[in-house]
Amino acid sequence: MAKLVKSPSKIFSHFRRIILPGRPNNQPQGLLAAKTPLYASSASVTVVKRPHVSHYPRKPTSNEPKHPLMLQHIEHKATEIEEILKGHKNDVPVETMPNPYQKPPQKCILCRHKIEPDYKNVQLLSQFVSPYTGQIFNRAITGLCIPMQRKVARSIITAQRFRLMPLFYKNLRYVNDPKLFNPFRPSRVRKTNN
Does residue 167 lie in a domain region? Predict the structure, then answer.
């Protein structure tokens, strides 16, 4: 004889929908919405207790390859390894030889021409200032390396403190100078997480 289960939601909470016997056209009904008593004989639940992962017996390691096309692993003795290495002494790569595939390090425009920014060189520093706002362009626009960008920023601030450069606009003498970079097309594109 089947026992009456009063709270089916506790037993079958992990089932999304279940077909209850005795429903018209055997329609699926949510267990929480079911107001009729549910009998234990209408559904069977098997609980399997698995041992902890550490209790599983480990497979014995063998010298057999994991794939049929792989060669079998062979254990060599230390003397055999030394003999093999003696034959390959002249096969060692030359440590002093430069890497032929290594790309030359990229340098910014100031490092390439070995120009040191100075607060008295207002014409050079005005290249790194916006003509509309007087703000210093960032590295993504100028394409300078980190130490040069810091030196340029410090030199611009020093020149502005000594009133050699205006604060809120670019000096009109240097507006038509040839540009070192295009401020509307950044040299370093920002990476977006899409």
Answer: yes
- Note the pTM of the prediction, 2 decimals: 0.48
Please answer whether residues 152 and 180 qualify as being in contact, where contact means their C-beta atoms are separated by less than 8 angstroms. no
Distance CA 117, CA 112 (A): 13
List the CATH number of the domain containing 114: 4.10.640.10
**What does the block give as tokens for 44?**
């069977």
Separation of alpha carbons 160 and 164, rounded Å = 6
Sequence-distant (≥ 6) Cβ neighbours of residue 165 within 8 angstroms: 122, 125, 126, 129, 156, 159, 171
Question: How many Å apart are CA 84 and CA 141, to the nearest integer?
Answer: 56
DSSP string, 13-37: TT-S-EEPTTSGGG-EE-TTT--S-
Q: What's the total number of domains in the chain?
A: 2
CA 180 to chain CA centroid, Å, is 32
* CA dihedral for 155, 109, 182, 144, sign (positive or negative): negative
State the Rg of the chain over Cα.
38
Nearest in space to 149 (alpha carbons), one of 166, 173, 127, 123 = 127
- The two tokens of residue 3 are 């026992």
Print the domain residue range for 18: 4-42
CB contact set of 109 (below 8 Å; sequence gap of 6+): 143, 144, 180, 181
* pLDDT per residue as tens digits for the range 40-90: 445 555 666 666 655 555 565 666 666 666 666 667 788 887 887 777 767
* Euclidean distance between CA atoms 78 and 151, whole angstroms: 58
Secondary structure letter of residue 55 according to DSSP: G
